[in-house]
Amino acid sequence: MQDSSKKSNSFSIAIATSLIAFLVVGAFRYSPSFRSLVLSGADVAVPQPESDEQSLAQGPSETDDQSERDPLLVRASGALQTASGVRVGAVRTIPWSDDRLIPAKLELDPARHYAVTAPADVIVEELICPLGKKVHRGEPLLEMSSSQLTTLRGGLMRQQLLTQKAQRSVDWHREIEKRVKEIIEKIEATSDNPSRDWLPPPSVQTADYGAKILSAYAKYWAAMQFSQISERAVNSGVMAEKAVIERTTDRETAKAMLRGAIEQSRFDVEQAILAAESDLAAAEGALQSIQADMRRYLGLKKWDDAVAAKPIDSLLPDRFVHYSPGDGIVLERYFANGERAATGELVVLVADIDSLWCVGDLRQGDWDLLQLHEGDEVSAEIVGLESLGRVAAKIEMVGGTVQSNSGSIRLTASIANQERRFRPGMIARLILNRPTKAMVVPLNAIFSNDGVDYLVKQESKDEFRLVPIKVGRRSNDMAEINEGASDGWNILVSGVFPIASQAFLEKE
Question: Bridge partners of 449?
């Protein structure tokens, strides 16, 4: 209440001061006696009205000469200054906050919105999550149907069986390889004194790879036995030495054949494993391709057998549920229930609008703002919602190229929208602050006449000069001076009009 009273008194005083100044100027102009009274204390001689003949006889006065010499110099007595409410201030340089307004538009954050398209020619059966409702990633979004899905599910089951078959083949060959290696290790440990005590029982499978080795080992063992018997028979004189040589040859031949069988079986089992692994890789690749198609149908980020394997209705195998690809609200739907959508057509738009992008274009005149970096704090104003004030924003990206169609550089900032007051498509302004310094004066210190702006500079106690200036940026109460003045000048900041108008009244 007290502040309102003070503002009312100040307003009344300002009106009264302006009225007095107007009356003083009018009296000064049209009343010679008042003008003589006011200037009685000044050094300026005021000529009295006289006839035209006297004026011609006397010639031009000293005041007229002075006006012609310096028309922008004004002399004002102390009485006139007091009556006009003259107050002197200074031209000064201060920090100036340079707000740039960049036209912009609110857009969805590309990382926070998801366009759900038809994975094939489908019929949109039902939108499970209604428009405007929140949906989380992996939750059912809509139900569709497609005849292609039945074929795809059959292909999936077949490929799963082929993959399992290929996996069992790999496992079996690896187990055979393990047993063959164990047999080879035993043989190599007893190569000089072969024995049949360690041989695996018939129930242990070694396939052809182990069978070849065991057959060669049996022949080597038999040759070793015959050789040893022959040596004992020769020593006792029962058998000729020639027979011993033949048995020894048979033994060495059997040993060589055993080594060959070992190497061949080792190579064969390795090749068999590689072939089985190749078949498995091909089966898994085909399975993953079918799973990728299924994930596209269902909208799954990762494969889930429990979700994908079974149809939602055994009587309707062509129907399937498409799951939400991310968190957000259902912003738009483009097909009604029962409508057909072609492959790739947009069906539903899901977006998280808790954060929006404010995208503007930096024109050439604003390229000095390219020093902005990702993460810099700025602000934005939404057209039509100015009552909300400025909204905090953060620079996300400064474009790296000039757009050929507009000659501008794209500038993107993000704004928080947890309360969902803003919507994509709204027009906005990015407010970019660039701290600078400026030479300023109060707005009241500027006098304008015929499109020219002036400052009233104090030359002495009773003399004032009108100085033409160029005005730059303006605020509510200050103006920037671009040309015509210097920092530190003493100028009139109050009572400007009554004093400045004298220069133009005297011309008339």
Answer: 452
Q: Alpha carbon 278 to chain centroid distance?
A: 44
Quote the tokens at residue 192. 């000089």
The runs of H, that is alpha helices, within 93-206 are: 147-189
Tokens of 86: 């003259």
**In 46-146, which ranges are continuous DSSP H helix?**
52-58, 62-69, 78-84
Say what the pLDDT of residue 46 is: 38
Is 425 a residue whose pLDDT tops 90? yes
The beta-carbon contacts of 155-159 under 8 Å, at least 24 apart in sequence, are 155/290, 156/287, 156/290, 156/291, 156/294, 156/308, 156/309, 159/283, 159/286, 159/287, 159/290
Report the run of H or E that residue 100 belongs to, with start and end.
strand 92-108
Q: For residue 452, what is the DSSP state?
A: E
Q: What is the mean pLDDT of the chain?
A: 81
> Rounded to an integer, what distance in angstroms lies between the CA atom of residue 20 and that of residue 23?
5
Supply 152's token pair: 């795809």
How far is the C-alpha of 500 from the C-alpha of 86, rounded, in Å?
A: 11
Alpha helices in 299-365 (DSSP H): 305-308
**CA 348/CA 143 separation, integer angstroms:** 12
DSSP class of residue 366? G
Mean pLDDT of 4-19: 51
Determine the Cα–Cα distance for residues 412 and 115; give it in Å rounded to an integer: 21
The pTM of this model reads: 0.52
Is the separation of the CB atoms in 505 and 25 below 8 Å?
A: yes
Dihedral angle computed from the Cα positions of residues 115, 118, 124 and 125, in that order, rounded to the nearest 10 degrees: -90
Residue in 481, 476, 475, 478 with CA at minimum distance from that of residue 453:
481
> Each residue of 154-193: pLDDT tens digit?
888 899 999 999 999 999 999 988 988 888 888 888 777 7
- Residue ranges of alpha helices (H) inside 337-408 are none
In the numeric block, which tokens belong to residue 234?
């020769």
From the list 344, 316, 302, 294, the residue with the least C-alpha distance to 125 is 316
Number of neighbours of residue 103 by Cβ within 10 angstroms: 12
Q: Which residues lie across from 108 on neighbouring strands?
A: 356
